[in-house]
Amino acid sequence: MPGTAMTAVSAAEQLKARTGAPTAGTGLQPAPEEGVDVLAVAIAAAPETSSREDTDEALHPTPQPRRGAVETALWYGVDVAARAATAGVTGKAGETLLVEPPSSKTGELPAKLIFVGVGDESVQSLRRAGAALARATKGAHLIRAAVVDGLDPAAQQAFVEGFLLGGYTAPRQGKTPAGPAMAGAMEVTGLDSDALRLAQITARAVWLARDLTNLPPDVATPEWMADRSRAVAERAGLEITVLDEAELLRQGFGGLTAVGSGAANPPRLVQVSYQPSAKTAEHVVLVGKGITFDSGGISLKPREAMMSMKMDMAGAAVVLATVEAAAELELPHRVTGILALAENAIGASAYRPGDVVTTYDGTTVEIGNTDAEGRMVLADALAYAAAGLAPDVLVDIATLTGAAALGLGQQYGAVFSNTPYLLDALEKAGDTSGDRIWPLPLVHDYDYALASETADMAHVAPPALKFGAGAIVAALFLEKFVDGVPWVHLDIAGPMSARADKHEIAKGATGFGTRLLISFLRDASNLRRPS
Known about the structure:
Radius of gyration: 25 Å
Number of helices: 16
Strand content: 15-25%
Strand order of the largest sheet: 8-9-11-10-14-18-15-16
Number of strands: 20
Largest sheet: 8 strands, mixed
Shape: elongated
Helix content: 25-40%
Structural class: alpha/beta
């Protein structure tokens, strides 16, 4: 089930200041024997102005050259302004303009010169520029890019990250290739080494989360996910514990075992832990919903709704990828991931609407809908973490409710928290990382929707109540199991997948939440309550 290989990115020397003739060497032009087949330089959007008198210029402003753009245009003998006007290219982030060398210089110059639009050169614009370059250079051997030469490390990281994410193609089974290969290598002039390292670690984590989530459910079963977690733990130096079905029953994980009771592939609970050298560091526990396939159980889903349900374990995939990234980044605080893995299937032993399930902390829950299984496995995992792992911060991430997707669409995740400063920190991390989130309220006036006459609580509002606010009700249910620990709930049902490539997002599983959590964890101040 191979996908495409990730481009090897390296730093090259910063361009020299140009002196003398416009074509004087800056260090960008490669010799033929270097094997560079693509040159990439930046063009920025013209600054906004109301003083343009030329109507055509007002409608199609000329893009502004950045480092290396003037001399490369002269090498290739191209009037970039005229070519851009014809193509409708204005330097907007993610635009590309392809130029080939004149026939007299074939073999002397790289086969392609690409002018990459960087817009306003913001982090978001550079991320989009990187993704566009990745798609425009598939199949290339070696790229030399001056797109971020002279920019700050955050912009450089965004460009490389966007490039690596934009070139992703999902793995597939069979004889047909997954898709055109990413460029073999890219040299980026003036690239900061820390920016490169952060971009590569983050991109590898997102690729892992995407790969796991894109795999078919006959491959990515709970047992297979546990085995994959062992492989990740071994290569990253993580501690790992896997609880099988018998141990889950013995320890009282009633929610997880109920959800998995009708499946041929029994449930698992995986705990992976990164421990820094400082033993007194803050402890963050990440909990991921890992429903490897969701049929809805006895409350059966329609066929159309079932096709994407191999991705109902996206939260668990994000958690595993994030913990590995924490170890690679050598963060100063402990990070533990809990993957609650089960297959929600129909069988003679499947749990039923009307059942009363006893969760890990002893709470009894009346089942109103077996298709609301995610909150049941999370209830066990959150209660287990709160009772036994002493977290300073507890975060769960889950493809939990269609209500969140309906309210926020596919570009924003919903976030809830019992701790205001954590909401602020996650929003900041979302803005920085590109995984955007939107806070929704925990409305405790709605607690009555979870009342039950036969158990401590219900896990869904009864149909007769005709109660909306499905994402809020689900979050209220989960809050009952965190025992007052500072907690964040991320509902990623909307942005878990994409129907088409767009910017750094690739078609299929998006890995949404991986960049968000890595950005959140990198800032240790996020983990301490403000004084």
